[in-house]
Amino acid sequence: MKTVIADEQLTFLSDLREYLDGLDPELVAAARAENIEDPMQPRTHCQAFLRQLGEDGWLGISWPKEFGGQGRTDIEHWLFAEELYNRRLPNGLLTFNVVGPTIMLHGNPDQRREYISRIMDGEIIFAISYSEPDAGSDLASLRTRAVADGDGYLLSGQKIWSTGASIATHLWVAARTGPPEARHRGLSLFIVPADSPGITITPIITQGGERTTSIFFDDVRVPATQRVGAENDGWKTITAALNFERMFYHNEPRWELRQLAEWADGAGLLDGSTAESYELQTVMGEHAVDVEVCRLMALRGAAMLAAGQVPYAEASTNKIWWGELRQNICSTGLDLIGAEGTVVDTDGAPASGHLVHGLMSSPVWRFGGGTNEIQLDIIANRGWGMPR
Amino acid sequence: MKHPDYTDDETALADSAEGWLKFVDNGYLNKQEQTDNGYEEQRWSELTDLGWASIALPERVGGAAGTLAQVGVALRECGRAGYATPLLSTARAVTLLDLVQGRDTVFDGVLRGVVAGNALALVAPPDGQLGVRPDGDGYLLEGRASTVEWLAQADSAVFAVPVANTDEVLVAVLQTGGLDITPVPSIDNELQATLTPGARVGADVPAVVVPAAAAARALGRADLLRASSMVGGCEAVLDLTAKYALERHQFGQPIGAFQAVRQHLGRMSMALDAARLSTNEALSLEPESPARPAAMDAVALFVAGRSYVEVALTAAQLHGGIGTTVDHVLHHHYRRAKGMQLRSGRPANRLREIHRSLVVRGDGGLW
User: Fold this and answer.
1) Which residues of chain A neighbour B256 with C-beta distances below 8 Å?
2) Whether A385 contacts chain B with CB within 8 A
3) Which residues of chain A neighbour B263 with C-beta distances below 8 Å?
């Protein structure tokens, strides 16, 4: 059977590790703490960390050299993302893994030139703005309008759950340019500077302490040059971006399992032979199995991208597996800990409070990037030919 | 592409195996299951000519010097068809013998016998039911009575059992004639028998004593063939169920148009992917490859068993009544899934072994 990881890719990984190990420990520790607290908002330290990576030539692994990338394959891109996730360090999130690749696919030459280089320089950060109060899974019913006006558009409407918009420089906005009855055939995709006149961003705080936002567009002027793809042809761009998002390689479950293992070691249960430790070993053994499967699902997506294929059902499978596993590790991990698991203080809490924090953050893992119910439908429809 | 992970050679082998297995359908499987032998001698001699059990064996014993992955491909097709013969136990046994003897040739005669058409049973009870203790110049088999696939039909039995009070395993080949064997009914069409301990392993039988860890590694490789067979079963069940969901109409439309049914199919598809991805990684990468964890063989076996049972149970739910009858091939997969899973022993014990390797020791792998 074919293998997809070659020796030169393993060399890439050891070079990357050597580089990361050599970074300023203070910068790394501060970026990690910020990333654990709220991974969707790269703030001061995470931005400094990413700029450092950019300056040292370690961003845009699979991006063409003409755009300042390393010109490597998607396998190296996967190794890079997984290594950073494994260290719980930021890897560029939606900007590098979703918007950048989509601009390269569907942007025009001017957009590619402008945005890719600015992303590489760490100058711009994107937030994604698709959902609306009345358009979630039924995204094609969205009502934010972009009305033609001179050489551009006037954008009006409300977006919600646009996570990261409070620190983003640019918004990646889906808006209606055709009639409502045209559904997904009447949408266009726009890049909008977050500081454009007429934009109001208000925070929403989640139970896990993360910040997401509501965004109000009040006749926001957007030049036509900011439209990605043809007018009313935005669905293609949106679905491409969603596929990248669902393939957005994941190794956090492994990190969370490690936090549980550290607690179990301290509690004398990791390798013992009491009934309690047997239970823990059985539960953790199955999580460890599913962490390896998670790795393989992400690697398959990377291999498909490297071979010029587009993962659809495979991307949905990856996303469901990752989110459910992660939530399960946090929840059943707390079961093993028991009453002490209710302590949320990150210093004194078992497993440094990472599992209880994870549990509170976890609902979005099952609906973000498209609900798992929709993903299962995609798997059945695209993977197994079921009628819609 | 039908088999995107396969090499061209493996695709050709899979196509040829699928072609040869065309005679297998539900009626054939039902009929064979009712016979004492469980399979046709004529088909076994055709299988011997095809040489699937010996693909990976060295040329000096008549093997094809191929790969374990190729054997896995052939057994995946058998698993897809639900076809039961001693092929799986024979292929597992020769994989074990070849690996534990290393550069030795003590088992070469046994391996040649398989190339010539002998069937082997593999006695390696997964939860420590059997062991041996030294007895004069040989060993005495002790422990609890154990269930072994194809033991009554096999020409020889390959034992891989722990030596009492040591960290070693005895691997020895015994003629089945001298063993206390009682055929017992099986959950599925893989025939089995109970082996009652008490037999003596004489100094004259082909045998080696190896460190327990080496024996476990070799058994892990051998058991990948069972995993691959279960992946074939998973694939068959998914194909059957997707087809049925399009054919079966209720409320004026195919049941696959109902979201509840599609969600079940989506879950089944994920289970299949998990089994196939882990088994293919374990088969494609050498055990010492830095790109895979040392426990990957055990992971693949566990996931393949869990997935095969999961998809079989859900498939029965989606088929309704027709899936429970002996007139539909699903009943073979339903029973084979649980049988093949259980033959790897108690899942909790397997998980604790995996935990020790992946979590406690962190053996191998990139992370």
Assistant:
1) 380, 386-387
2) yes
3) 373, 376-377, 380
- Per CB-CB distance under 8 Å, the chain A contacts of B350 are 285
Which tens digits make up the pLDDT trace of B176-220? 999 999 999 999 999 999 999 999 999 999 999 999 999 999 999
**Min CA distance, A272 vs chain B (Å)?**
11
The 10s digit of each residue's pLDDT in A192-239 is 999 999 999 999 999 999 999 999 999 999 999 999 999 999 999 999
Nearest to A285 among B277, B285, B351 (CB): B351
Q: Which of A70, A91, A112 is the last residue of a domain?
A: A91
The pLDDT tens digits of the residues spanning A255-269 come to 999 999 999 999 999
CATH architecture of the domain with range B8-118: Orthogonal Bundle (1.10)
The answer to whether A256 contacts chain B (CB < 8 Å) is no
Mean pLDDT, residues A75-89 taken together:
95
Nearest CA in chain B to A257: B359
- Helix (H) / strand (E) element for A236: namely helix A234-246
Q: Judge whether A99 lies within some domain.
A: no
Interface test with B, best of A8, A75, A296 (most B CBs within 10 A): A296
What digits encode the pLDDT tens for the residues B53-89?
999 999 999 999 999 999 999 999 999 999 999 999 9
- Do the beta carbons of residue A201 and residue A150 sit within 8 Å? no
Task: Tell whether the model's pLDDT for residue B354 goes beyond 90.
Answer: yes
- Chosen CATH of B213-361 out of 1.20.120.420, 3.40.630.30, 3.40.20.10, 1.20.140.10: 1.20.140.10
For B84-114, what is each residue's pLDDT tens digit?
A: 999 999 999 999 999 999 999 999 999 999 9
Name the active-site residue from A245, A252, A256, A314: A245
Report how far apart, in Å, the C-alpha atoms of A79 and of each of A9, A28, A76, A302 are.
Answer: 8, 19, 5, 9
Strands (E), B112-268: 120-123, 130-135, 138-143, 146-149, 156-162, 168-175, 180-184, 192-196, 200-201, 207-211, 249-250, 253-254
* Interchain CB distance below 8 Å, A293 and B69: no
B76 near B228, Cβ under 8 Å? yes
CB contact under 8 A, B367 and A380: no
- A245 labelled catalytic: yes
Where are the domains positioned within chain B?
8-118, 121-211, 213-361
User: What tokens does B185 get?
Assistant: 């009914």
Joined tokens for residue B132: 């041996």
Higher confidence at residue A67 or residue A350? A350
Q: Which two structure tokens, joined as six digits, stand for A360?
A: 């509170």
Q: Which residues of A touch B266 (CB under 8 A)?
A: 316, 375-380, 383
Residue A186 has a CB neighbour count (10 Å cut-off) of: 20
Distance (Å, whole) CA A77 – CA A79: 5
Nearest to A10 among B261, B267, B291 (CB): B291
Domain count, chain A: 3
Given A202, A233, A264, the domain boundary residue is A233
